[in-house]
Amino acid sequence: NAGVTQTPKFRILKIGQSMTLQCTQDMNHNYMYWYRQDPGMGLKLIYYSVGAGITDKGEVPNGYNVSRSTTEDFPLRLELAAPSQTSVYFCASGAGTVNTEAFFGQGTRLTVV
Amino acid sequence: AQSVTQLGSHVSVSEGALVLLRCNYSSSVPPYLFWYVQYPNQGLQLLLKYTTGATLVKGINGFEAEFKKSETSFHLTKPSAHMSDAAEYFCAVSDGNDMRFGAGTRLTVKP
Questions:
Q1: What is the mean pLDDT of chain A?
Q2: Exposure of A107 by Cβ count < 10 A (0-12 exposed, 13-18 middle, 19+ buried)?
Q3: Which residues of B touch A104 (CB under 8 A)?
Q4: Alpha carbon separation from B3 to A39, A45, A64, B92 (Å, rounded)
Q5: How far, in Å, CA of B15 to CA of A101, rounded?
Q6: Considering only residues 50 to 79 of chain B, which have any Cβ-Cβ distance to chain A shorter than 8 Å?
Q7: Mean of the pLDDT values across residues B85-91?
Q8: Are B103 and A59 an interchain contact pair (Cβ–Cβ within 8 Å)?
Q9: A10-13 and A108-112: which strand pairing?
């Protein structure tokens, strides 16, 4: 049971570089989410998707982009990395009914130097 | 948009003592409420959730939480703390679309 898989687990980027954080789920969930976690700040919602082809901004979308071409995949793109984007990123998915919980990946620890 | 406030970023209890982690929410629609636990270097795991019906919900590992609409609260309790309960706990609220989390409470259990 793979669940939600994130790659890579760790990455160091230089300022101005770009990268894509990958997220795949094998539970056929409609809903997918990207969060960032910073110490003492909890998890902040970056973007979410309620189904293939549909995405929406969360609390902190600036500096990020997403796409949802398939039900399984929800990549997060950083175009011009900045030190403020140093964080742990979590992808999650949910079945899409209103009372469902979110299932989380193991996280990607990103450092921008 | 909905929001969550967790009172107390750190809580320390002795093994065997009552655990109480506080959560207050704000939502313009009937909320769906969750408690998650995070162990070091891991993702979040669901402890319990409130959707509709009984306001006292029981979760895994002996935890429970009570939804109090009049107080807009969803506090997490456990009668007797165990060393293995040491972790960070997050309260979350959903309106059926996105899910918002509190800042987290780190629970320390002293022997």
A1: 92
A2: buried
A3: 43-45
A4: 18, 11, 22, 8
A5: 30
A6: 51-52
A7: 96
A8: no
A9: parallel
